[in-house]
């Protein structure tokens, strides 16, 4: 009865005023009625759309070229923030919301009022946004071996992203990194496809739990506190020869299916809304032009029903040099099955090019309809038509204390203890909180930017402590030791200073400088200068624990003997307190290597299961300690 009474009021919302030859009348639009079945809404809307409107839906542009007018004029279906692309430096959540809503109002002011979907790389928390919680990068999460924890991180990230008015993230990266020389190796949970598969639990965290009985392959987003996810980069991104970014993955069908594909099976079962195509090639064929794998396998065989998005200028890079033959790129990419193109800047070139090809029957209308149908399916499913505009109700979620506690927990769980003293000195950890005087050293001890790594505030990451709010490892140590313990910090002390300092022990924090795509590719995998001399100077003179901040295993074999204890901390993010929690025994070490730790780079690639496997520390290695009982 109550429902019946409410219905007419509700109906008013879906009656729109239309003007036809001067006559104003209200029209009932089926697609705007959330009571209609999903497919009815999609079909109804699709039947009303012009070619221009359809191609607009398939176009994703960067926020720097977006505006109310552009959204309206070109019927743009989606906007993104590239790495580090923000409405203003240190923008507040409200500033983000205002920007997103402005673009959205442009979309809503079009004839059919189809909402746009805003997407962003939230790959370790909402990492472009000032004061967001920055979680450990995926490699560290792989070390936790805890999918339930990763799911909670997904839910927290979704809330922080929604806090800024954004409903879509380009995460998770489910690459299976098979060679740490790849600069994106830290975006990969593990070299082991089973761990990557398990960590797809982040998808129900981001999108919300799939209702029981959901049909396989159908995208799902629970509501306004969740976001659409994107499994990327399909497929084989982590398998390129010598770990060269965007390069060629050489493996047979069995290798592709067994190593790089399992994460996609699981993602699809879990209702992932979108899949991003990889820049890389498989056996010489660019994935952005691979119809067999994108349409044949992903859409037809695996029955993925969400939309496929290209990578940034991904279709341009089908040719070398990139953009050498854009009309060919459009044809090859759209024909392969890409539904939405991350253009991201020169959108009129894309729109005009695709329009020409459809009008000239180079690309069939059925292909365009498939793409638009998928995009609309995601938008309808997630409730974007009912709730296109963001409000400020979630702004307090951004960088909340609760999320920082969760990140701190993740840091604790991600630490892998590789060595813990020798002989009479073992175990060295946990360290005593009470000591007359201790030394903290190393380039990474007091550098929030370094401990966050790439994809933090800026695309390639930053150095220093002013990029966002968080706790450096040095501050964490100071917070944790006994108030009477004197903490001396010297970034790179010489041996004499250390010797004469009468320190009870030292903590040395060194590692890699931040990097992301391409810039992070490395063939030597060294600790950044002067890290190894800091290790030598300090560890040669006093008992030391070395904490390594890196996106991957690095060369340490020559220094293992001099380092009394070694902790792999990966790229922990803003909550450095988690490192001190474990060093001083408030919690035990539990992390396990998600990757093989090589002896020398000429062993690479080196993965668990390889013949003649001879690592420095094997995949799965990790010493444990018990928490210290204190009262
Ligand atoms: C953008 C990144 C993007 C990259 C692609 C950068 O300028 O900020 O988001 O991934 O270009 O090359
Ligand atoms: C990266 C993607 C990212 C996109 C947008 C690309 O360069 O490969 O992972 O989602 O840029 O920033």
From TrEMBL:
Residues 51-378 form the Glycoside hydrolase family 3 N-terminal domain. InterPro entries: Cellulose_Degrad_GH3 (IPR051915), GH (IPR017853), Glyco_hydro_3_C (IPR002772), Glyco_hydro_3_C_sf (IPR036881), Glyco_hydro_3_N (IPR001764), Glyco_hydro_3_N_sf (IPR036962). GO terms for biological process: glucan catabolic process. Keywords: Glycosidase, Hydrolase, Signal. Residues 415-624 form the Glycoside hydrolase family 3 C-terminal domain. Residues 1-26 form the signal peptide. This is B-1,4-glucanase. It comes from Eucalyptus grandis (Flooded gum).
């Amino acid at each position: 009865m109550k429902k019946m009474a409410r219905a007419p009021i509700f109906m008013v919302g879906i009656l729109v005023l239309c003007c036809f030859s001067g006559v104003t009348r209200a029209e009932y639009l089926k697609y705007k009625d959330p009571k209609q079945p999903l497919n009815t809404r999609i079909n109804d809307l699709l039947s009303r759309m012009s070619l221009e409107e359809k191609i607009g839906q398939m176009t994703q542009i960067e926020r720097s070229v977006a505006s109310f007018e552009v959204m309206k004029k070109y019927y743009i279906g989606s906007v993104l923030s590239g790495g580090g692309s923000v409405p203003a430096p240190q923008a507040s959540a409200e500033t983000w919301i205002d920007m997103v809503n402005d673009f959205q109002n442009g979309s809503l002011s079009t004839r059919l009022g189809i909402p746009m979907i805003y997407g962003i790389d939230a790959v370790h928390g909402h990492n472009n946004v000032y004061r967001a919680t920055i979680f450990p990068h995926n490699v560290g999460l792989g070390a936790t071996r805890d999918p339930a924890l990763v799911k909670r991180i997904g839910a927290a990230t979704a809330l922080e992203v929604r806090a800024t008015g954004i409903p879509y993230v380009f995460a998770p990266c489910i690459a299976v990194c098979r060679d740490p020389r790849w600069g994106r190796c830290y975006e990969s949970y593990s070299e082991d496809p089973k761990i990557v598969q398990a960590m797809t639990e982040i998808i129900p965290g981001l999108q919300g739990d799939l209702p029981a009985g959901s049909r396989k392959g159908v995208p799902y987003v629970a509501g306004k506190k969740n976001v659409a996810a994107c499994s990327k980069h399909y497929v084989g991104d982590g398998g390129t020869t010598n770990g060269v970014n965007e390069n060629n993955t050489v493996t047979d069908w069995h290798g592709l299916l067994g190593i790089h594909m399992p994460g996609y099976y699981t993602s699809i079962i879990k209702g992932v809304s979108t899949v991003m195509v990889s820049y890389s090639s498989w056996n010489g064929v660019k994935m952005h032009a691979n119809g067999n794998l994108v349409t044949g396998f992903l859409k037809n065989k695996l029955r993925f029903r969400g939309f496929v998005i290209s990578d940034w200028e991904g279709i341009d890079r089908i040719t070398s040099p990139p953009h050498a033959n854009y009309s060919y790129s459009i044809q090859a990419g759209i024909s392969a099955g890409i539904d939405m193109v991350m253009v991201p800047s020169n959108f009129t070139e894309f729109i005009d090019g695709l329009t020409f090809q459809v009008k000239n029957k180079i690309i069939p209308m059925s292909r365009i309809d498939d793409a638009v149908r998928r995009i609309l399916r995601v938008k309808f499913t997630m409730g974007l038509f009912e709730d296109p505009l963001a409000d400020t109700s979630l702004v307090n979620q951004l960088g909340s204390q609760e999320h920082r506690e969760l990140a701190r927990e993740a840091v604790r769980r991600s630490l892998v203890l590789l060595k813990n003293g020798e002989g009479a000195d073992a175990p060295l950890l946990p360290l005593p909180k009470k000591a007359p005087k201790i030394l903290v050293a190393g380039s990474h001890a007091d550098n929030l930017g370094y401990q966050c790594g790439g994809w933090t505030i800026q695309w390639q990451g930053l150095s220093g402590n002013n990029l966002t709010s968080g706790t450096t490892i040095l501050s964490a140590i100071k917070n944790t030791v006994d108030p009477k313990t004197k903490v001396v910090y010297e970034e790179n002390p010489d041996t004499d200073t250390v010797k004469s300092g009468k320190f009870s022990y030292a903590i040395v924090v060194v590692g890699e400088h931040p990097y992301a795509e391409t810039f992070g590719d490395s063939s030597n995998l060294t600790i950044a200068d002067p890290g190894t001399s800091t290790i030598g100077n300090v560890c040669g003179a006093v008992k030391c624990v070395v904490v390594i901040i890196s996106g991957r295993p690095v060369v340490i074999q020559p220094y293992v003997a001099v380092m009394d204890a070694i902790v792999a901390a990966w790229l922990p993010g803003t909550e450095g307190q988690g490192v001190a929690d474990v060093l001083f025994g408030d919690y035990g070490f539990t992390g396990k290597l998600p990757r093989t730790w090589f002896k020398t780079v000429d062993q690479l690639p080196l993965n668990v299961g390889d013949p003649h496997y001879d690592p420095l520390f094997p995949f799965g290695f990790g010493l444990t300690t018990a928490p210290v009982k204190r009262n």
